[in-house]
Structure formats: C-alpha cells, structure tokens
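Please decode residue identities from the backbone states below.
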C-alpha cells in the first residue's frame, strides 16, 4: 500500500491548472495551499464555512460525508467535496469551482471610480484646503545647474551638490543629507545632463534630505511629478492610489483581494496562523508580495514611471493587518488583556516595506486606538470630518469586522463589534463576497413571494446567473422576507409556497434561485440558520450603538448624522437596514455613505503632513470602549436579536423633520 502520498491535479475553472501533492493525512485544502492554488476558506479550513468546494473528477478520496451540512447527498454523488474535509486515497484530479476563487475574481471594492465616490473625494480635497492641509507633503523639487568640476575646483560631486542646494534654497549645507540611492545615481546623472539636475527633496527636523537626483529633461520632474502611494489594507481587500503630490491629484487606482484570505476570513484565524512556524512571513508575503507588489507595478506602468519614483507612502489598516504587513507578532491581540505590539509605528522607510517604493520613502501609518479598532478607523474618522461637527455623529465601518465611532468636535468614543464575517457572506451557506454572480439586492412580491434579483454582472455586460448572496443582498432579502410577512420577528418562516422549502428536521429556507437558474446548478437558499446568524451580527452593531448612547445618557434621536463606510456600504439599502434593526431608525436624509474612508484618510495623510498629524491627534483623543466587559452590552444584544427588535417602538416609522 502506498504511504508516501499522492499527486493532486487541480483543474481551475476558467483558468490554468496546477499540480500538487498530498502527504499522508493531508487534506486537499492543504495540498492546494502547498501548490499555490488559493481556495477561499473563511474558516481557515476548519470545516465550518463550506466555501472550499471542489469536484472530484478522478481517483479515490475519503471524507465529506453525503448529507452533511454543506454538501447534500445529490452533490456528494456528483463528486462535490469540501477540500478541507477530504483526504486523497490515490492520485486524484479535482476541479476548483469559480465560487471558491471569489476572493480574487473581481471583488467589488469601493474606490474613486464611481460618481458617488468621486463626489466624496472632491469634498475631502475641499476640506483639506479649508483646513490649510493642501500641498503639505514635505516633498519638493529643485532644478539646479552645477559648475562642472575642474583642476581648479576638484570638489566631490556630493559636496558640489550640497553647495548648490544651499545657495538655491538657503538651507544649511551641513544639515543636508544625501540618501544612498541618490548618491549612487549622482555621478552618472550629473555628467549625462551636463550637470543640470533635478533634485527630489524632503524637509525633516530642520534639515533636508535629497531622495533622488535625475538628469534635467523632459523625462524627469517637474514634467513627470512627485509621486506618493496611499494604501488601504482591509481584511478582505486591498486598495491603492497613486498620487501626483505636486498637484494632489490621483494618477491611477488599483485594488484586489487580500491573499491572506486563504488563511481565514477573520483576523483571529490569521493571528492563529501567524503563530505557526514561518506563519508571520507567510502572511506578510500573502498581502505584500502576492497582492500589493503587483498592484504597485500596475499603477506605475499606467503612470509611466519606475516604482522607485514613489517617494512617500501612507498606510491605513486595522490593527492586525498592520502588524502582519510589517511582520510584527500579533499573537497577543487575541489574548487577554488584548495588547498590541504598537499603536503607532514611526520611522518606517520604503525599503522596510518591500513593495518597490523608493528605499528611503517616508511611510506614514495611521495609528490604532485598540486591538480591534485600528488605523483604518482613525483615517476614516478624519475622512468623515465628524470630529469637526458640533452635533452628535455616528461613524460605522461595515466589512469583515464592524467598528463604530460616536462623537463630535467635543469628544470621540469607539468600539468594535464581534459581528463575525456575516457581512462578507461568511456563516451564510450561500453567502459570498461582492463579486460576479453575487445577489446584491432583492425585491419580493408580497402576494406571489417571487423575487426580483439584482446580480453583480460580468464585465462585458452579459447576463449573469446568480452564484450566491453578498452582504448587501442578505440585508435586502431578509428585509423583504420580513416586510412580506414570510418570516416573523424570530426569523422563522410562517408562510408556505413554492419558494419555501422545509427539511426533515423542521427547518425552512427561502429559495432565491432554483437549480436551473444558478451558475453552479445548486439552488440558492437562505435558511433559518442563515437568518439567525445574520440577526446576531446586526444585533451586535445596533446594541453597540445603544450601549455607547446609554453611557452618554442620550437617545437615538440625538444622532444628527450617520456616516457609513466600507465595501458593503456601496450597495446597502439604508431603508432595509433600518427595517431589520441594523441601523437606528432615523430619517433617511441623516444617513450618508462616504465610500472607502480608510483609503480617503490615507490619501489625506499622503498629501499632507498636517493631515497625518491630525489623524494621530484623533487616535490619541479617542476613548476605546471594550464592549465585552460592559455590563449593559449583553442585555442590549439579547434584546436586538429579533427583527427588528424586542422594543417595537424603536422602529416605528418616523417622518422627516
């Protein structure tokens, strides 16, 4: 009997195949990771999410019993298995489904491409100007013509440059620093251009650093500009913005899935993975080498520049993502008393990031507030400008995690909710991320119970069959089911029809799409278990709002403005979110979607040292509330675990003021 392991052939749907190997006892999920085949696994291969589906084409394997929660008897007979629960018993060939690769297939990411996002961005730029934060990156360009060396003037190139810069700028020649990359280029650049140079300068600590020297000409600044990079690292997605810092204008944007997804959808699974041998470096490479570096190259290719022309970087991310991106142990973030290695990381340079930027590029990292309220929130609060409001405002960032900030110009308080991955489609059997094939909205006829689905379509505009339901779709579907009286306040089905399926255990579900209507040939069903999981997630958020307000002895009506951000926010129906008790019952005009506020805040920090200082000030002034230890939170949570709430008066329809 063969015991040395088996070969595994992965046939990736709509893509190239790969060859792998499974050692004795290893699962197909393990073999896929070792072969570089990235399969989406929100639960990190623990067998609970059901997303790592693949089809056994040939060979023998064991595991993934028919009739299990995620694989029906019919699907099992057709060859479908969960990669994490299946162990080869011979050489095998498997087909990886498109839904298992959803993390990298056109995940919908909020950037500055849409009209609504562009309007948000334009307003942010106006706010920066009004606060005196425009054109304040600390970088500048100086064009010089040096006297060529001679026997009468044999000064070294470096001293010759320092002397010319001091004369041109009035800087102290002794306080001038020449970065090593610039020194290496100086001799050839000077002689190539007849000693006509353009210098990239950075002001710092009363002195000046020469970051780069380029031959003066059409291919060098000021024609080509000074460049900076704004980076938002989310748990699910990564977004980048290349900016011409001379004019503060974005040049190109790029985004993609965070490669760390294969180690789990949530930060806890990522932290656990980081504690294993080589885990920190694996996770760093997954987001930096596999994701950010290719995106940076794409941006710079679009702009027609070398990546080394990125002279400043601004980064916003949650606390865990910041630790793992910088290669810092994150283990203690999940262990009581939940202490991170750092809140602020100063003095990081481009070479340490290893993403292709200029080696001496100044890197500004948005500081965190707590273990689960990170720099993405401090950057987002800056972008929202709620810290300038005299009235009370609420900031909600909905994504893989959920964070909230309540405050005004007088105070700021924040918290993180243990809402789980439901808003990204996790814990939902037919849930998926917002990519092609995801149902993002739904309307149901109250009489016939027939749905009208809005599906994220193919890039060519062709009709797209549904493959699953993303977060915004789940919100509208549950809201519609409740509005139509198909489910009750407990999320239980109280009506029957062709769209309602009941199983032998007494459970029920709503069929949003039948087998023949879907991309995979499997029906898309939202079950009572799915609804229960989502209701707990929405309850965590609403109860957090109520708890913070109770600490201030304020009613819900005191909130004058609600800013909501994050990928799910772009497709969310505020009305349906109120209907199910996710958002407070306030007039719709008080709600405002502000796009990718983390990336917007990173852009502000990139363009302005003053803005970066303000973000740091926001982090220091914000009070972090640990909800798990607050005596009122659990009481509020239990009360909110109904549709919309046990206290119906909280969700009576309100007329606009």
């Amino acid at each position: 009997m063969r015991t040395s392991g088996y070969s595994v052939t992965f046939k990736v749907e709509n893509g190239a195949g790969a060859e792998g190997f499974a050692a004795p006892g290893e699962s197909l999920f393990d073999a896929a990771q070792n072969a570089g085949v990235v399969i989406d696994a929100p639960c990190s291969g623990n067998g609970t999410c059901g997303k790592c589906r693949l089809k056994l084409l040939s060979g023998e394997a064991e595991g993934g019993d028919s009739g299990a929660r995620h694989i029906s008897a019919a699907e099992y007979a057709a060859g479908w298995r969960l990669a994490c629960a299946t162990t080869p018993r011979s050489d095998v060939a498997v087909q990886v489904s498109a839904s298992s690769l959803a993390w990298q297939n056109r995940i919908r990411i909020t950037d500055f491409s849409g009209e609504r996002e562009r309007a948000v961005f334009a307003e942010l730029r106006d706010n920066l100007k009004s606060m005196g934060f425009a054109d304040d990156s600390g970088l500048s360009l100086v064009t010089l013509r040096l006297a060529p060396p001679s026997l009468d003037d044999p000064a070294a190139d470096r001293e010759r440059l320092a002397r010319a810069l001091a004369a041109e700028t009035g800087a102290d020649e002794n306080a001038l620093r020449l970065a090593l990359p610039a020194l290496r280029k100086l001799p050839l650049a000077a002689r190539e251009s007849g000693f006509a140079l353009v210098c990239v300068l950075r002001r710092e600590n009363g002195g000046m650093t020469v970051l780069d020297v380029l031959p003066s000409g059409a291919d060098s600044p000021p024609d080509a500009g000074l460049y900076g990079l704004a980076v938002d690292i989310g748990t699910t997605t990564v977004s980048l913005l290349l900016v011409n810092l001379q004019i503060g204008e974005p040049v190109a944007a790029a985004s993609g899935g965070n490669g760390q997804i294969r180690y789990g959808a949530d930060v806890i699974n990522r932290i656990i993975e980081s504690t294993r041998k080589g885990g920190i470096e694996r996770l760093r490479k997954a987001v930096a080498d596999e994701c950010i570096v290719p995106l940076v190259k794409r941006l710079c290719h679009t702009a027609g520049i070398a990546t080394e022309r990125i002279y400043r970087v601004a980064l916003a991310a949650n606390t865990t993502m910041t630790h793992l991106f910088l290669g810092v142990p994150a283990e203690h973030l999940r262990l009581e008393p939940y202490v991170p290695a750092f809140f602020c990381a100063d003095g990081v340079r481009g070479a340490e990031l290893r993403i292709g930027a200029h080696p001496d590029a100044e890197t500004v990292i948005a500081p965190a507030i707590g273990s689960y309220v990170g720099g993405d929130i401090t950057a987002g609060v800056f972008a929202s400008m709620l810290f300038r409001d005299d009235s009370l405002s609420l900031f909600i960032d909905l994504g893989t995690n959920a964070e909230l900030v309540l405050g005004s110009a007088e105070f700021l308080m924040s918290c993180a909710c243990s809402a789980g991955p439901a808003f990204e489609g996790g814990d939902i059997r037919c849930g998926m991320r917002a990519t092609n094939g995801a149902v993002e909205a739904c309307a149901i006829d109250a009489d016939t119970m027939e749905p009208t689905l809005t599906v994220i379509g193919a890039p060519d505009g062709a009709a797209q069959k549904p493959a699953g339901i993303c977060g915004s779709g789940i919100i509208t579907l549950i809201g519609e089911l409740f509005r139509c009286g198909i489910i009750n306040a407990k999320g239980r089905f109280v009506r029957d029809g062709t769209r309602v399926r009941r199983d032998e255990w007494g459970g029920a579900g709503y069929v949003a799409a039948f087998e023949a209507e879907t991309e995979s040939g499997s029906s898309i069903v939202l079950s009572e278990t799915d609804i229960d999981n989502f209701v707990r997630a929405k309850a965590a958020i609403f109860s957090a709002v109520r708890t913070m307000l109770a600490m201030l002895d304020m009613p819900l009506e005191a909130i004058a403005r609600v800013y909501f951000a994050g990928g799910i926010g772009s497709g969310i129906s505020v009305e349906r979110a109120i209907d199910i008790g996710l958002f407070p019952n306030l007039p719709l005009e008080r709600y405002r979607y502000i796009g990718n506020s983390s990336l917007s805040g990173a852009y502000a920090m990139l363009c302005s040292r003053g803005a970066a200082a303000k973000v740091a000030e926001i982090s220091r002034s914000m009070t972090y509330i640990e909800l798990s230890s607050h005596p009122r939170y659990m009481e509020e949570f239990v009360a909110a675990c109904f549709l919309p709430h046990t206290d119906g008066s909280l969700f009576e329809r309100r007329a606009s003021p």
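Observation: Residues 165 and 171 are 7 Å apart (CA to CA).
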